[in-house]
Amino acid sequence: MKIVFMGTPDFAVPCLKRLIDSEHSVVGVFTQPDKKVGRKQILTPPAVKVEAVNNGISVYQPNTLKNDEAMDVIKELNPDLIVVVAYGKILPKDILDYPKYGCINVHASLLPKYRGAAPIQWAVLNGDEETGVTIMQMNEGLDTGDLLLVKSTEIHINETSEQLFDRLSVIGADALIETISLIEADKIKHVPQPQGDFGYAVMIDKSMCSIDWNKTAFEIHNQIRGLQSWPVAITKINGKNVKIHKSALCDANGDFAGKTVNNKNALTVCCGDNKCIDILEVQPEGKKRMDIKSFLAGNPIEIGTILGE
Predict the structure, then answer these.
(1) Which of 87, 194, 212, 296 shows the greatest Cβ crowding within 10 Å of its Cβ?
(2) How far is CA 110 from the centre of its chain?
(3) Contact status, residue 83 vs residue 29, Cβ threshold 8 Å
(4) Which of 227, 268, 219, 257 minimizes the C-alpha distance to 244?
């Protein structure tokens, strides 16, 4: 099968790799334009572009798909199928309808739950026990197409969004290859998504970082692991902003939100429900990420200190 691949970030790379290693032919890759990254604003190619170039595959980086130029490229490549994985652009109807088998999308949630841009982070932020990958036939709606294949997986209680990204990217690659095989064999089943408002996984941003210690221990723990590795939860410790990279639920109890109750091997903090979490890894302003023992060695924190002030 001739396939055009559309994707951009690291999450999409395992899918592209599996297609390259398969019996199918990846005839072209569409990805977002290179972007300036970091303090030095270095022009950096997307992860998908790097993988495609390393495998000698033609790469296209249009600013928009809503013109004749993009459609002309698709016609020239003449794919049987277009595979979309975290591309970041809306496909117009003429592109959706062009390939023999249409366009399919690898979406990192159990649709119809968490349609939109940040399904992995929101599953963790909301404390879900299960998520997965859905392979979907694309239509003009936003993640509303027919379900083709669904693979579910447990979310571990201390698993971060970053760790879940890595697992789901591999699950998604396996599901993609299985789906294409079913399509070729004419054994694929199209299951329409249920009707209704199932919410939208909006983009994550820095406004979500500040920890409100009046929330429950479970909510704060989910915030810390859900915002890992970007933009990262943050709180004030002795008046200075500190990023909180890792935490764990614990059996300790306290009597005041934000109050530290232990400073040995972990920084144990009381939350709004009087249950506590252990802070395990932090990053002070202008410094590298470190375990809490190293942090406490240079930044003694007395029991009873109130975080967030």
Answers:
(1) 87
(2) 14
(3) no
(4) 227
Phi, psi (deg, nearest 5) at residue 229: -105, 5
For the chain, list the strands marked E by DSSP. Answer: 2-7, 25-30, 35-37, 42-44, 59-60, 81-85, 103-107, 115-116, 130-137, 147-154, 200-201, 233-237, 240-253, 260-262, 267-270, 275-284, 290-291
Question: What pLDDT shows up at residue 92?
Answer: 96
Nearest to 18 by CA among 240, 181, 248: 181
What's the whole-model pTM score?
A: 0.94
The position carrying tokens 């920084």 is: 267
How many secondary structure helices (H) and strands (E) does the chain include?
A: 8, 17
3-state secondary structure of 263: coil
Give residue for tokens 């302003």.
285
Q: Are 219 and 127 in contact (CB under 8 A)?
A: yes
Q: Are strands 130-137 and 103-107 parallel, antiparallel or unpaired?
A: antiparallel
